[in-house]
Write a structure and sequence with these properties.
Elements (H helix, E strand, L loop, with lengths): L29 E6 L5 H14 L5 H4 E6 L7 H8 L3 E5 L17 E4 L2 E6 L2 H9 L4 H15 L2
Parallel strand pairs: 1-2, 1-3, 3-5
Antiparallel strand pairs: 4-5
Amino acid sequence: MQDLFDFQIFAVTEHDEGHENVKGQASAEVLIIAQVGDNNSIDNLAFLEKVLEAVQLSPMEKKTALLLLQASDQISIAGLSRVKSCHTILLFGIDPSAIGIRAELPYYRFTRVSDLQLLRAHSLDVIRAERAQNNNQKAGALWQALKVYFLNP
């Protein structure tokens, strides 16, 4: 007998690695996972803080939890989200497969996966570089997604 769904749309792994590197209190139940970039990460974090402040997630260290990853890192989002009790995950420059999600996530749209809401965005380096060239396409898409989700629930 063949099942109607004979393939898996996504898989969430159950490992708990990586949680010791998460910084912040996450009082708003938001976890940010960002790729460590080639450019100045202090500038990236300052930019991120300004973006989060506009959607009332400031101070960042109290309202969110932050995990910085190298491009080659692999973690389990299932274990991480449980450790910090986060239901909203913002991904900056992170491929969904690197966090155990086996599904294609669109950029700049919140997507429900199990009991999590995930937003995939380009890396902070890419967004900032585009803005420096007076092109706000990615920053504008990020702002629209965050505004709709956090300010107009």
